[in-house]
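Retry 2 of 3 after timeout on previous attempt. Resubmitting structure tokens to design endpoint.
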């Protein structure tokens, strides 16, 4: 069982801590537990319930009405909202919440069904734009704390990577004369989902991809560029790089990649104010990356 503070609940559900406390007092919506030193905390079950409540609130339900529902009725109402999925923000939020709940409770079947349903409605690329990316941003705010839900992080991200690699395998192989691309994460970088999505997009657009993966030593990057002679290079710097380390990596990469059109993506906190040479461009999101082709 994972343990959450009321601030954690606020981050994932989007409902203010002050509001959560009022709902507890007025409607008995949640029942926090207490440590031996009388500190309030919540468990997975209560977090998942609050996420479902936020879905109903987003779709026009009154909290007084929700408070009268049984657990089964809450779940039924959420399922009906998801079944009516369209482009409206409230319906997409319902799907995001459902995926978060499935991940927090290690329910692979529910996660897979929701993921596949989203692909059926939006397609793979738009599923990442509309659903997966917002989900990762929300729950990633908690993952940054390292000590809250690391096992859920691995569970969710590995499920997503599995589905992306399956989609990549289903694409036709590139022509032997296709433009070559190298994809990698520098040393100390582990967060691979963006890189795998880049792999899918490049292969979808007929490129020959050489996927080096996580934590690639600089000597290996240097050797790969020399041997493969790629036309393009894409790498990510997400969480584990300080700005100083990120700039040092860019400065080392500059002479090695000077003849390769290169692109860096990642978190704004890492990439802001980096001094990039003219051949290395920052790509902020999927839509901008797609414009490269």
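Retry 2 succeeded. Sequence:
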């Amino acid at each position: 069982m994972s343990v959450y503070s009321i601030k954690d609940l606020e981050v994932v559900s989007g409902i203010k801590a002050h509001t959560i406390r009022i709902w507890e007092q007025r409607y008995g919506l949640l029942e926090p537990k207490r440590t031996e030193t009388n500190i309030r905390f919540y468990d997975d079950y209560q977090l998942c319930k609050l996420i479902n409540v936020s879905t109903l609130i987003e779709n026009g339900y009154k909290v007084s009405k929700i408070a009268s529902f049984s657990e089964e009725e809450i779940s039924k109402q959420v399922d009906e909202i998801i079944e009516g999925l369209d482009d409206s923000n409230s319906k997409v939020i319902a799907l995001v919440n459902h995926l978060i709940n499935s991940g927090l409770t290690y329910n692979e079947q529910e996660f897979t069904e929701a993921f596949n349903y989203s692909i059926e409605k939006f397609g793979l690329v738009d599923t990442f734009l509309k659903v997966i990316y917002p989900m990762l941003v929300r729950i990633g705010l908690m993952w940054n704390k390292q000590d809250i839900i690391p096992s859920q992080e691995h569970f969710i991200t590995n499920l997503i990577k599995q589905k992306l690699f399956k989609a990549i395998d289903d694409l036709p192989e590139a022509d032997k004369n296709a433009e070559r691309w190298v994809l990698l994460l520098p040393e100390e970088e582990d967060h691979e989902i963006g890189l795998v999505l880049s792999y899918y997009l490049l292969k979808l657009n007929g490129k020959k991809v050489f996927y080096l993966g996580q934590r690639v030593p600089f000597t290996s990057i240097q050797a790969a560029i020399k041997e493969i002679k790629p036309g393009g290079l894409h790498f990510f710097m997400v969480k584990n790089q300080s700005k100083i380390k990120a700039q040092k990596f860019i400065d080392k990469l500059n002479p090695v990649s000077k003849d390769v059109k290169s692109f860096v993506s990642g978190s704004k906190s890492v990439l802001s104010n980096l001094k990039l040479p003219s051949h290395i461009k920052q790509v902020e999101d999927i839509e901008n990356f797609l414009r490269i082709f």
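Attempt log closed. The mean pLDDT is 89.
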